[in-house]
Amino acid sequence: MELLRLNDLHLSFGGVTALAGVSLDVRDGDFFAIIGPNGAGKTSVFNCISGIYTPSLGQILFNGRDITSLKPHQRAKLGIARTFQNIALFKGMTVLDNIKIGRHVHLRSGALACGLYYGRAAREERAHREAIEREIIALLELQDVRHQVVGTLPYGLQKRVELARALALDPSLLLLDEPTAGMNAEETEDMVRFILYIKRVRKLTAVMIEHDMGVVMDISDRVVVLDFGEKIAAGSPAEVQHNPLVVKAYLGEDFEVA
Questions:
Q1: pTM (2 d.p.)
Q2: pLDDT tier at 229, thresholds 50, 70, 90
Q3: Among 46, 150, 152, 249, which residue is least crowded by beta carbons within 10 Å?
């Protein structure tokens, strides 16, 4: 079953074309990767899916519904969650409080009411906190740091907290924007392990931007390649890895595929 479809997306900034007719479809349960050189349009696609940008032409369908003009918070309520290439956490708040923010779309009482120590709102807040501790903090092995201030944590742990916050939304579609960017080898290995767990056990549909081709080839079911805002290839990881257009985009005109 198709979960997400982009139909002929166009996006420009002044005279600069960011996307020139990009189309793709993501099936339920897919682990889908978008790759391409710097400036290819990958983040522009993510910004269109999450509602930060509105394409000048084209259509975005989610679960068969046209969401092209919906605002980001409306898309979050439909079940679209996102991490960012540059960490977007509240550095002065604890790990647990940052993750709880991802749960806000499910609160019926409102964030201010949930700050009270009694009544239905407080009970609701406690129930969500217990679910986060049981299902997400344990899953991502954050138990020992859940009460620490995020800004004091190593970079790799902060990236894991951001993934936890996205999972707290309980999404049906997870957008991963370079989840291993800036990590050392050990941190990358840990992050890939957690992503694989999410893929295999929770069977969550995900779309990922990633520059580490080893990660892309290991965990993706299907891959789309962008270059200068256009889709130049699509298929299995093995198929795109040996596509001459992909090799040319990454390595230059004179490189020949063996």
A1: 0.87
A2: very high
A3: 152
